[in-house]
Design a protein that fits this description.
By secondary structure, this protein is an alpha/beta fold. The protein folds into three domains: 235 residues, Glutamine Phosphoribosylpyrophosphate, subunit 1, domain 1, CATH 3.60.20; 180 residues, Rossmann fold, CATH 3.40.50; 144 residues, Glucose-6-phosphate isomerase like protein, domain 1 (Rossmann fold). The chain has 18 helices and 25 strands. The strands form four sheets. An eight-stranded antiparallel beta sheet has the order 3-2-4-1-10-9-11-15. A seven-stranded antiparallel beta sheet has the order 5-6-7-8-12-13-14. Helix 11 links the parallel strand 18 and strand 19. Helix 10 runs parallel beside helix 13. The longest helix is centred in the C-terminal third of the chain and has 23 residues. The chain starts with a strand and ends in an 18-residue tail after the last helix. 56% of the residues are buried. Bound molecules: 5-amino-5-deoxy-1-O-phosphono-D-mannitol (M6R). 5-amino-5-deoxy-1-O-phosphono-D-mannitol (M6R) binds next to helix 10 and helix 16. The site of 5-amino-5-deoxy-1-O-phosphono-D-mannitol has 16 residues, from helix 10 and helix 16.
């Protein structure tokens, strides 16, 4: 994870401010420490702090950091604890080279053993890169040659930016398995982990691929392979409105993104018919279909399994991407794999897709971030159009992923147009659902704030909603939460239910309503405090988070909304920052 930003300009700039503002857009990628290195005159000016960017801003006057070139980093620790010494940028012993790195260098211990005489000051794998760079330069190589040689020695994942006080007009960049995008503006070149820091300066981007090295000068750039052969690259245009990545009137990005769902659901319907139909055609022609994803996107995939079955009588398998390599799958050339990912950068998904492609299977994807690695490695991709999702907890992306899966299911039965007409009502229903639950979830969160565990149960398509409700709750409120198929309760978990244990039943008025109600009654008989998510009340419920009545198949899109709000309110009531949960980052770009 970690976020990196760098730039090189033809004229002296307030480099500290440019880099810091860029890091702000990437803070979701890591927030345990941050740093900036700028070349001023003929030396590197380095500032690092532990903590969030707010802590950095309080300690460092970024307006004082002027220069034509600089790099910066916001960290999610992998190797070495959260200390100032472990924070990036890392600088060579001679003080001339600074680098930032996102990823993991797997052979750094061996490389370290070969660097006798170097006094390492951090516990990071990254410091090895900068030490190797100095060694190569001391051995007579120029900056680019040294960088290329080092890249050929290191193994693992990386997005690296390097600057050299002896050659201040050039920034070097390279990537393998970690994201890195270049941006071209007037008299300036940028590089960053995703497009958001670039959008403040340009809409012209260049996607760097694995094994590519970029040499960035203020007015030009060149890209090479690891042998030094020049590669021609195309410049792409991206369009995302910067204001959509601002918090606006909301206290947190998560709340803003939950509240945006009426609009993001509308946008999710603006897919060219042909794209959705092509997915449907590929599904119906494939020998076997597998949905692959992690976290929230995995829950969307499980819901997709149910809805494709119910609407289109089509069976698909679902696999957790991080487990993919441990299964001997029967994938063949005519199999279809559909990856679902908000960021399009999740390492577990990317690694699985690489293996899948080697087997010759077709790869389609449903992503939010345009031009992301997963989108680029797919034979066909659909963008969910949810807009930037900054909060670490995925919310609006989930409902938009579901929306795309519904549309594919309707296309499979030749009813895309009719389906979309029905789905058009979801935006208004989502708004109603938000209005019905914003205050109610706050009051409920106050009651639940000091509980130890919360259980979420649901049957059929409500089962992935139970999983998703539990994931939202645990990741941001740190309460232990477990989601399960309601029928599984009696196979073990019921033993944990005692007087006052909160049990949340996702139980809309659908065809499994009566069975889930029975399970809720079973927990109540053991003293549970039963909360229902439903459009139909029952005296057994201690609390009801109402959802508006809807066509039966669309309940999941509405059912998750009160659970997102409840998780948010729980985090706030418990004094946790929902946008920056401890130990987590938005894009999980490491294995
Ligand atoms: O970007 P992706 O959708 O591929 O991310 C997958 C998971 O890392 C992500 O959904 C994660 O579980 C979220 N923090 C959940 O809210």
């Amino acid at each position: 994870m970690c976020g990196i930003v760098g730039f090189v300009s033809e004229k002296e700039e307030n480099a500290g401010k440019i880099l810091f503002d860029g890091l702000r857009k990437l803070e979701y990628r890591g927030y345990d420490s941050a740093g900036i290195a700028v070349i001023s005159g003929d030396s590197i000016n380095l500032e690092k702090e532990i903590g969030t960017l707010d802590d950095f801003e309080a300690a460092v006057d970024v307006d004082e950091l002027n220069g034509k070139i600089g790099i910066s980093h916001t960290r999610w620790a992998t190797h070495g604890g959260v200390t100032k010494l472990n924070a990036h940028p890392h600088v060579s012993q001679d003080g001339n080279i600074a680098i930032v790195h996102n990823g993991i260098i797997e052979n750094y211990q061996e490389l370290k053993n070969d660097l006798k005489g170097v006094k390492f000051i951090s516990e990071t794998d990254t410091e090895v890169i900068v030490a190797l760079m100095q060694k190569e330069i001391d051995g007579g190589n120029d900056f680019f040659e040294a960088f290329k040689k080092v890249l050929n020695k290191i193994e693992g994942s990386y997005a690296i930016l390097a600057i050299n006080a002896r050659q201040p007009g050039v920034m070097l960049a390279a990537k393998n398995e970690s994201p890195l995008i270049l941006g071209k503006a007037l008299g300036k070149m940028f590089a960053a982990s995703d497009s958001m820091p670039l959008l403040m300066h340009t809409s012209e981007v260049i996607y760097l691929e694995d094994g590519e090295i970029a040499k960035l000068m203020a007015k030009s750039f060149e890209v090479f392979d690891l042998k030094g052969n020049k590669i021609a690259k195309t410049i792409s245009k991206i369009e995302t409105h910067i204001e959509s990545s601002e918090k606006g009137m909301y206290a947190h990005f998560m709340l803003k993104e939950i509240m945006e769902q009426p609009n993001s659901l509308k946008r999710s319907l603006q897919q060219p018919y042909g794209d959705v139909e092509e997915f449907a055609k590929a599904i119906s022609q494939a020998r076997g279909v597998m949905l692959i994803a992690c976290g929230t996107a995995l829950h969307a995939a499980i819901a997709g399994q149910y809805l494709l079955d119910r609407i289109a009588q089509k069976h698909v398998n679902v696999i957790n991407a991080s487990e993919f390599s441990y299964l001997q799958t029967s994938l063949q050339k005519n199999s279809l794999v559909i990856a679902i990912s908000q960021s399009g950068e999740t390492a577990d998904v990317i690694n699985a897709l690489k293996k899948i492609k080697q087997k010759g299977a077709k790869v389609y994807s449903i992503v939010n971030v345009e031009g992301s690695s997963i989108a680029r490695m797919s034979d066909k991709t659909i963008g969910i159009k949810a807009g930037p999702e900054i909060g670490v907890a995925s919310t609006k992306a989930f409902t938009s992923q579901l929306s795309i899966l519904y549309q594919i299911a309707f296309a499979l039965i030749g009813k895309l147009e009719e389906g979309r007409k029905e789905m058009d009502k979801l935006s208004g229903l989502a708004r109603l659902c938000l209005d019905m639950n914003l205050d109610k979830t706050k009051a409920l969160a106050e009651k639940l704030a000091n509980k130890r565990d919360i259980y979420f149960i649901g049957r059929g398509i409500n089962y992935p909603i139970a999983l998703e409700g539990a994931l939202k709750t645990k990741e941001i409120s740190y309460l232990h939460a477990e989601g399960m198929a309601a029928g599984e309760l009696k196979h073990g978990t019921l033993a944990l239910v005692e007087k006052g244990t909160p049990v949340i039943a996702i139980n809309p008025n659908d065809f499994v309503h009566a069975e889930t109600l029975s399970n809720a009654i079973e927990t109540k008989a053991r003293g549970a405090f039963v909360i229902a998510i439903s459009d139909k009340n029952n005296p057994v419920y201690d609390e009801l988070l109402s959802i508006p009545g809807a066509s039966e198949e669309f309940y999941p899109i509405l059912g998750i909304i009160p659970l997102q709000l409840l998780a948010y309110q729980l985090a706030v009531v418990r004094g946790k920052n929902p946008d920056k949960p401890r130990n987590l980052a938005k894009s999980v770009t490491v294995k």
